Amino acid sequence: METLIQLGEKAKKAARSLARATSSEKNDALRLMSQALVDHTETILTANKLDLIAAKENGISENMIDRLVLTEERIKAMADGILEIAELPDPIGQVDGMWQNEAGLTIGKQRVPLGVIGIIYESRPNVTTDAGSLCFKAGNAVILRGGKEAIYSNKALIHILQDALQPTVFPPTTIQLVEDTTRESSKEMMRLNRYLDVLIPRGGAKLIQTVLETATVPVIETGTGNCHVYIDKDAQLTMATDIIVNAKCSRPSVCNAAETLLIHEDVAETFLPVIEKALAPWHVELRADEKALSYLQHAIPATQEDWETEFLDFILAVKVVSSLDEAIEHIDRYSTGHSEVIVTDNYAAGMQFHREVDSAAVYINASTRFTDGFEFGFGAEIGISTQKLHARGPMGLTELTSSKYIIFGEGQIR
Amino acid sequence: METLIQLGEKAKKAARSLARATSSEKNDALRLMSQALVDHTETILTANKLDLIAAKENGISENMIDRLVLTEERIKAMADGILEIAELPDPIGQVDGMWQNEAGLTIGKQRVPLGVIGIIYESRPNVTTDAGSLCFKAGNAVILRGGKEAIYSNKALIHILQDALQPTVFPPTTIQLVEDTTRESSKEMMRLNRYLDVLIPRGGAKLIQTVLETATVPVIETGTGNCHVYIDKDAQLTMATDIIVNAKCSRPSVCNAAETLLIHEDVAETFLPVIEKALAPWHVELRADEKALSYLQHAIPATQEDWETEFLDFILAVKVVSSLDEAIEHIDRYSTGHSEVIVTDNYAAGMQFHREVDSAAVYINASTRFTDGFEFGFGAEIGISTQKLHARGPMGLTELTSSKYIIFGEGQIR
């Protein structure tokens, strides 16, 4: 088993050849990787079975097993995902602006790869191919560190991807896996400053917390979403109901699902019973403040903790507010800065919400569920950043790049 | 003396009001701050005298004292600097792109402030007003932590700036100073994740190293420049000489000064004696590899360490290389990723250098000394980033901002 330093050294070397590659060299390699997944479906399924046996022995939850399991269809989807990445425009080499300075130098800002990207993730083996191929397309070497539950699947996948690179100009070390899945290796990776240009953790609140406490490598924090829907006094009942039902129930386990409903006191009495009825088919548990309780049939009292919690489940905190300002203050205090919605027909209220709410995605009259790289039209997504540095919101290929200034002179000195 | 947590809480609150301010509110406040510096020149000079007395008692070097000392002219320059910042276009609110997605949502990417910025710097008191006013213009609250050598000057400056904010909509806590100048307070600041959105260290290699080892707050690394000038076989002698003299001697103490000269073996014999003569008036010490030594009159042998060192002095490492590739490999290995130059009349060599050298600023036929926010035409500079995340190269106002997505819907659900 290679040490992280060995992986890091090889990745850094691979990054250099990758940064110099043309788009067609990268796209051809991606197509080979995609085909290799299809060709080796049996091998992947066999490896995945080993993970599933171990998972059952370790009494892992059904939910987790569902994330872990691969089928022929899922492998086909992973292969198709790589093909789609091959079709995306290449951000590398693009010059975002070019100008002449006072000394007559022509200065351009050109997109270049970040270098070596580390990704720490949990049980889904599809992240191995998704994240690996996205980093590759953006010209980066990648070191992947998946969860121990998926280690057999991940090893098989990486072996296949590396093998697919054999006939190309890229060394297999372009995409590497950390086979040591102990917590120590994870922490060591978080401090691998010499080799990693950025670390992207993809996982639950606990992983993100460990990264924040431990990492000295530059990190892009992703995916904690305590998202709010605020129904203004000037909201339409049907639109408000549709949006909260969609934001809460269409997929509650993801970070762009809504967790708290804030509602203006002027409409609470009329709207809340309708909303409760609309949420009933999903058995959504409502945890309400005192005022909201009085309008709801089956709600239970909310605790302080409920305002802070990303339930990721069929649970919704409900609070009646006396004004838009109070709604914004609540969001300021409890939001993780992911996605927030105002439902209103009032122009001024919408604009104030846009201006004053400080989150990655701020919506007027739409569901939080749209915060997603594909829905935004990026054609890909490596995660949703909830930090303000480098990238904020859904991250596509561009967010996996850096820039350099290229300067054309004719002997200028200063 | 307030604790860092108290400063952090106040800054976070101030950041909210700052984010909602209009450009004219901010510019008016900047003009008041500028005027206040001029009005209180005497107070600032008196405080500065206390720092100078302490500096002399502590036997601080002349070089350091020169950085510390304020005069009426220097204070006027600081005040003028703030006025210039007031005149710059406000990046906040700008929408960098707006499009419609498949669901018919109108999605825009809008510039917003980062929030709270921490700056750790050393003895120059002008950083207090420069950095403070730049962060302010970009809508950020700032916590400044200057060196203990300048504590009296910094306290006076901050007091004057805060006082100038009294008639404005901004709380004085918009710009704060850490008065505790112990190393512990500095380290605590590096881990103030709850309050700081980013930390920008401005100082020598030792400070940067401590930050890298200690910080858990997102950091923008600045200002280490082991910069290279490569003279190609197809270079013009006069241009090559002018560029290396300018890059080394015009201001050796700054990060964009050149530290190593690489020269192609085909021209070493002709060029090196001319270059040595041109550098002689500055008494530049040449530390050369074996080949270069044979062409130089007064050089001494270079050690391994010399290739790695940012001398910040009238010292230049010199190495003869057999090819452009060897030059690029040397840069790859020893550069800090700041600024590198090729001097050549060969088109293919210039393009290869641009493509393959991975530094913030890559020049053909110009001096490294142009790597500077003002020279690039940004109208301001908060530092020169040598990292790849968020910002790379000279950082102006835009680099002190983040973005958020503003989304206009009409009831869309997913």
UniProtKB/TrEMBL annotation, chains A, B:
<keyword id="KW-0560">Oxidoreductase</keyword>
<comment type="function">
    <text>Catalyzes the NADPH-dependent reduction of L-glutamate 5-phosphate into L-glutamate 5-semialdehyde and phosphate. The product spontaneously undergoes cyclization to form 1-pyrroline-5-carboxylate.</text>
</comment>
<comment type="similarity">
    <text>Belongs to the gamma-glutamyl phosphate reductase family.</text>
</comment>
<dbReference type="InterPro" id="IPR000965">
    <property type="entry name" value="GPR_dom"/>
</dbReference>
<dbReference type="Pfam" id="PF00171">
    <property type="entry name" value="Aldedh"/>
</dbReference>
<dbReference type="InterPro" id="IPR012134">
    <property type="entry name" value="Glu-5-SA_DH"/>
</dbReference>
<dbReference type="InterPro" id="IPR016161">
    <property type="entry name" value="Ald_DH/histidinol_DH"/>
</dbReference>
<dbReference type="InterPro" id="IPR016162">
    <property type="entry name" value="Ald_DH_N"/>
</dbReference>
<keyword id="KW-0028">Amino-acid biosynthesis</keyword>
<keyword id="KW-0963">Cytoplasm</keyword>
<keyword id="KW-0641">Proline biosynthesis</keyword>
<feature type="domain" description="Aldehyde dehydrogenase">
    <location>
        <begin position="9"/>
        <end position="286"/>
    </location>
</feature>
<keyword id="KW-0521">NADP</keyword>
<dbReference type="InterPro" id="IPR015590">
    <property type="entry name" value="Aldehyde_DH_dom"/>
</dbReference>
<dbReference type="GO" id="GO:0004350">
    <property type="term" value="F:glutamate-5-semialdehyde dehydrogenase activity"/>
</dbReference>
<comment type="pathway">
    <text>Amino-acid biosynthesis; L-proline biosynthesis; L-glutamate 5-semialdehyde from L-glutamate: step 2/2.</text>
</comment>
<dbReference type="InterPro" id="IPR016163">
    <property type="entry name" value="Ald_DH_C"/>
</dbReference>
<dbReference type="InterPro" id="IPR020593">
    <property type="entry name" value="G-glutamylP_reductase_CS"/>
</dbReference>
<protein>
    <recommendedName>
        <fullName>Gamma-glutamyl phosphate reductase</fullName>
        <ecNumber>1.2.1.41</ecNumber>
    </recommendedName>
</protein>
